[in-house]
Amino acid sequence: xxxxxxxxxxVLIRSRVKHVEENEKCTRYFFKKLYKAKPxxxxxxxxxxxxxxxxxxxxxxxxxxxxxxxxEQSMDEETVESFISKLTQKLDPEDSIILDExxxxxxxxxxxxxxxxxxxxxxxxxxKEYYQAxxxxxxxxxxxxxxxxxxxxxxxxSMNTGAISLLWKKxxxxxxxxxxxxxxxxxxxxxxxxxxxxxxxxVVSKLVGTEQTCGIQGRKMTDSLAIIRDSxxxxxxxxxxxxxxxxxxxxxxLEILGFGEGFRRWIHVLYSSCIGVKAGVRQGCPxxxxxxxxxxxxxxxxxxxxxxxxxxxxxxxxxxxxxxSMYMDDITLxxxxxxxxxxxxxxxxxxxxxxxxxxxxILVH
Length: 365
Description:
The protein is of the alpha+beta class.
C-alpha cells in the first residue's frame, strides 16, 4: 500500500514545487518565479473559429481536438507498399532472436538506474526514488508483471493510464496546435520502455542511415549542422509529428525491418491504450524517439533512391553527396515530400519551412 508520504512526494514533483527541495531558501528561483508564471489556458478557439472561455467549452474543444488527432487514419495501401519496399537494411536473424527474448532482471535494473531523480511520476504518484528504495523487493515482481502483460497482450488499467500535461511551445495560446502534449507515465511503464530502448540501441544504427541523427547513441544534432553548412536548403517541420504516427504503418515497418514477433508484441502492448488512442507515439516515453526514426526511415530510403533528386556536396564531406538531413521531425532537403503524407498523414508547417542559407546573412522566405 502506498504511503501518504510517497503520494505527497509525487504531487510535489508533478507540481514542480522547487522550494521544497531548496529548503525555502531565498534563491534566484524565487525572483524568477515572481516574473514567470506557468502558461495557463483560459481561452481557446473552437472549430468555428470562435473564442470560448468557460471551463466546459474549453474542455469540449480540447476533447474534440485530441479525439481527431489520435484517431486512426486511413492509409493509401499502394503508397505504403511502395515506401516500405524501399527499405534496404534488415536485422540479422541473430539480432532478431535476441530482441525477442524475455525481459531480464538485469535489464530492468539498468533501466531504473539510468532514470533521473525528481521527475514527474504517473497517476499512481510513485516516483523513481520509491522504486529505487525498494528495488530488491519490487524488481522480481515487476519482471512477472511484464511477462504477464506480454502473455495477455494488455496492461492493467492502472498501468495503462497516463496524465497528459500540455506544454506551451510558442504562438497564440488560444490554439491547441501550439501546445505539446506530454504524457506522464507510471515509472513501471517507463522502466520497461527504457529497457526496450537499450535493446533497440544495439541494432538501430544498422537500420537507419547516417542522415538521421536523433535517437541513436553516438549521433548528435551537430552532425546534421556540419553537413548542411554553406548551403541553400528547404526546411520542413512536421506538425504534431509524434502524434501522427500511424500504428499500423509502424508495425509494418518493424516487420519489414526484420523485428520478430516477440519485440513487435512489446510495442503493441506499450502502445495499446485504454482510451482508444489509435495514432501517435507518446511524448514522454523513452522508446518513442527511436520508434519515430524507424518510421521515418522509409522516407529516408525513398529520398536516397530518387534519381531525379540531386544532392549537395558540402565542404568537408569527402565528396559524399548529401540529399537531405533529418533530426526527429525536422527535415532539411531541396525538394520532394507530398507523397509521404499519404502514409503518415503529416501536415507541413509552412511558417517553419523557409528556403534559407546556413551560415549566411541572406534569408529567402
